[in-house]
Every structure is written in C-alpha cells, then in structure tokens.
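Thread title: Can someone regenerate the structure for this chain?

I was given the following input by a collaborator and told the matching structure tokens would be attached. They weren't. Posting the sequence so someone can regenerate them.
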Amino acid sequence: MKATIKVTIENRKNTKGEHAVKLRVTHKRKRRYYSLKDYLKTPFMSKEKYQKAIVASPRGEHRGNSILFKRIEQKAADIIHDMPVFSFTSFENQFFGNQQKWETLAKAIDQQISDLQDFERYKYADTFISTRSKIKNFSGKGYNTLTFHDIDEKWLERFAYFMGKEGRSPATISIYMRNLRTLFNKAINDHGMKIVYPFKKYKTQRSTANKRTLSKDELIKFSKHSCDPNSPMGFAKDLFIFSIYINGANLGDIFRLKHKNIKNGQIVFNRKKTSRKTIVTNISAPITESAQKILDRWGTKSLSPEVYLFPVLDNSMTEKRKVKAIEYKIRAINKQLKKIAKDLDIEHISSIYARHTRSTYEAASGKNITYIQQMPG
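Best answer:
Regenerated them for you:
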C-alpha cells in the first residue's frame, strides 16, 4: 500500500490567527505532518488564504501558492513512487535531503521502534520498547537527555548489573544489550555520528540455553498422554506433535499456513523469521496420516487457497493484530503444555521444545525419525 500526501494546514492557530502549512503523509492509517518552512516563504497562512490556493483555478498570489503546493506534493509523490517499501524515516531522509539527527538516545529508540512498526516487524519492535522501558528505569530523570556520548563501557556494565539485580535472565539482558549495539551501529553508519563505540571492549554475554529437548522416552510418554482430544489441552498436544511432523516449524509459522501451502501432499512454506532474506529456502514436509488427522480435527474446512489452515488468524486482521493473536494463542498452548509436563513428571515443556526435539533427533539419527512420524495424532 502506497502512502498518500497532501499539503494542508494545522487546526491550531498562532497569535496572528494563522495556521502552519504542513505536508501530511498517510500510510496504513498512520499520519505524520512535516514543516514546510524550508519550502515556503510564508509557512503560515489564514484558512481563507489556504482554501483560495487549493481551488481548481486560483488567481493572483493564490495561484503562486497553488503552484508551490503542487511542486511539493509532486516531489513527495515521486519519492514515494520510487521506494520499494515505504517507511517514514526513509521518506524523511530523501525529502529533506539529510538524515535526521539523533540528539538523544530517546530519539534514536523512538525512531527505531517507529521504523520497525512501519515494516510490520512488531515483535522486534516490542524488544526495543522493552529496552526503552528498562533504560528509563535505570536512568531515571536523566533518560530524556541521555546521549550516545554518555554511554561507555562502564555505563554498559552498570546497566547490565542493574538488570541482573532486578532478576532479569542473561538471555533478556543480552537482548537489551544487542539492541543498544544496533542503535550505536545505526548512529555511526547511517547517521554519520562521531561517537565512541563502547562495544569494542564490552561484549554482550551469551546465555547458556536450558535443556529444550524431550528425550525419546519423554516424547513417547507425551504422545500417549491421555486427555480430551477436543479440549484446549488436546489442541496444545496436537499442535506440539504437528510441529514435529512438519520439520519443527514454530507455532507462529504454523498459524500463518494457508490452504495454498498444501501442494501434492506436502506442506510447503517459508519461515516468517527469514522471509526478509535475499535467498529464501522453502521448507517442505509430507502430510503423514497422523498429521492429516490433526488437520481434520482442528483445521478450517475451506476450498479457498487464501484461508488459514488453523482458525487463529483471518485475512481481515492487520499484521499487528495477527502478531498479537499468535502471541495470545502460543501463551495459551504453553499453559496447557505445562500442565501436561506436570502430569507426566517432566521438568518442563513449551512449544519451542518441538523444534529443538525434531532437530536434535534428526542430527542424532541421520533423519531416521520413524518413531516420531508414527506418533498418534
């Protein structure tokens, strides 16, 4: 969806009763207004004067304003037309001829979040929202004036220690630190900022992942666990097993599958996480008899190729709503998997275990996973 543009005026007035003339850019129901003081000699005008400039055949000085408005709109339209994917930041950089400066870390984080949301990378944007919240807690009243120059190796060490004292896991701390490192790299490479790079000395910690694989015996016990097949627990169990059937696909990818992904008895798809890469590899998995039983029990009954396989998403949803719906459903499934783990006296099970279990046994057995494929659906 292309962005739309229009030269307009603000509703509020200045002390002279005039309105600021702005360029309004709208994309996916999100609007931004840009000052035109560098384009217009008089960036303020009365409502009457503005309306006389936008009529079909303006006269006198109003004709001059009309021509300027159209030139501005045409420049904006040309920039938008040449953009393969629209983002407000990219538009701003081209329209104003330079990168917007990041005077503070707060501005950098806000812009990063906005950019990611423009590209519908909502989950990644959420990690920066969490990072922002944690830096606010750490910096207190000084957050709004915090700059890249204030952040050095010692600052990073204190920030990491602060999060550790709050009980944040090494994995979470690592995510926040990587986000900060990303902002430094963008500040230097994209915004030409002359700053000291603190990550040359400070290295983000790598967390040691907990065991996320079910043993063969645990997997067999899991497949034989007795519960109402049509209950939420039955759904969680089936989706866990279905994930293993289709190459350990994560639930987010499973819930995005549509009927068009079924081709010649195979489920063929690309991982959402890697869909932005230049080279994308198709993942395919045969629909076994047991996998088909799960589809029959929980799948949507439709002949339309654009209908989702499972009734979690629908095409009327925005991408943001889809992300939230998937997160909600995965939390519900993990809650049920936790109950199953307790029933079976297994330390822990979550949806991510399916992917790791599949890959572990493929590596160990040379993809000889017959007993997995024969698990009851």
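The first helix runs from residue 47 to 53.
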